[in-house]
Amino acid sequence: MTPQEVLAELTALQAGDVPTHGGSTMAYVYDSGRVGIDHLAAAAQAAFQWTNALDPTAFPSVARIEDDLVGAAADLLGGGPATVGTVTSGGTESCLLAVLAARERWRARGGTGRPRLVLPVTAHAAFRKAAHLFDLEVVDVAVDPVTCRALPSAVAEALDARAALVVVSAPSYPHGVLDPVGEVAALAAAAGVPCHVDACIGGWVLPFLDDVPEPFDLSVPGVTSLSVDLHKYGYAPKGVSVLLTAEPELRQGHWFSTAGWPGYPVVNPTLAGTRPAGPMAAAWAVHRWLGRDGYAELARATRAATVALAEGAAAIPGLRVVGTPVATLVAIAQDGPDGVDVLHLADEATARGWLLQPQPPFAQPGGADLPATLHLTVTGATAVRVDALLADLADAACAAAALPPPVADPGLVAAAATIDPAALTVAEVDALLELAGVGGGTLPERMAPVHALVAALPRPVAERLLAGVLDLVYRPRRESAVSG
What we know:
GO molecular function, one term: aromatic-L-amino-acid decarboxylase activity
Keywords: Lyase, Pyridoxal phosphate
InterPro entries: GrpII_AminoAcid_Decarb, PyrdxlP-dep_de-COase, PyrdxlP-dep_Trfase, PyrdxlP-dep_Trfase_major, PyrdxlP-dep_Trfase_small
Protein name: Glutamate or tyrosine decarboxylase
Strand order of the largest sheet: 1-7-6-5-4-2-3
Oligomer: single chain
Organism: Geodermatophilus aquaeductus
CATH architecture of the largest domain: 3-Layer(aba) Sandwich
CATH class of the largest domain: Alpha Beta
């Protein structure tokens, strides 16, 4: 194939993707709406696409880029003279490393047994992944069912001798609300437990706003680490995040070094060995161009659009906004028993060209359940389209209200209650997915029944089937079969 043919084929592959620009995809992607950012980021990324950030002594430019990004994050987010940090591949890796460092600190201080990770149920799923990988026990902490904020009293009950880390969100991804960082961090400090602030989605927005209700960053006593993503509201390409630690000793807990083999001595500050420098260079370039003034302008415009969106959505009959959004995220729920089902609403919004992210209902431990919601991430590109979005949302709500509530097949739910998910083979999962209407890895046009089924199944079974869907999607195509 010629280079032109290869690129044409690559472009054709994207035909079924949701759009990454234009503001209609309100999850997964972050579009500033400024074309110049794309050009600058692409040029910077191309200039460093072959550079290996594994060894900054061989590529000192990488060290300079990383130090500049960490320094900018520390200046913006309350870092002190001892604050250090690490550039990672994304928010998940930043969260993983924060948990790993806390576990190592807990062990070094004589912790015995299995360490615990204290998580409000609204904390990002990345922390559950960290607990799985690094063998910590998750202690679920209920949140207030109305405000969806972490309950300091519930956190306090979980801060025992096995607690290695407590997490708060600024804001939480599901509902866009700010946890009581100061109260929780003070409780953690009194118990001798580190406190991590997950500001992956809000850390590059909140510092530029005037209406943030309370401090949330490293300036808060008791906060020991903080994560912030530059590929979100730093408007850099995927994937770049920064993990800040209040003091250098904590950072050492997630570094790995070895001279125990006959090859070159290895020191890795992140989970990866080879680290792509292209996204880091792109983030550096975008930051240098926009500067604080540019970010402040984008953040304030996006925040104003978010407030207008929340007010407009709350005025649509049958819908309500969950909690008090503090940044650029909005969660919409059904208002009352006769309100609009948000799972249907997601499908109707999709039919009108918008990707809004459905979130199933959640049963809290010992607390009131959280309702199903529709998550909307507002970006710079969406800010100029709020009126159009509200008009489509109102139309979609009328259509959704006319549909019967999505109900999971009772026979399938009853059968699932008897299943040991750990014992299921791949073939058995494939068969169950066929019964659920998602066989072959092809999702149905309307997803409300699938989401209703996920919500009705026992959580371990649902998780096994969800993994099965991805397993069907990632089935390799062999060139020999394609070519015939």
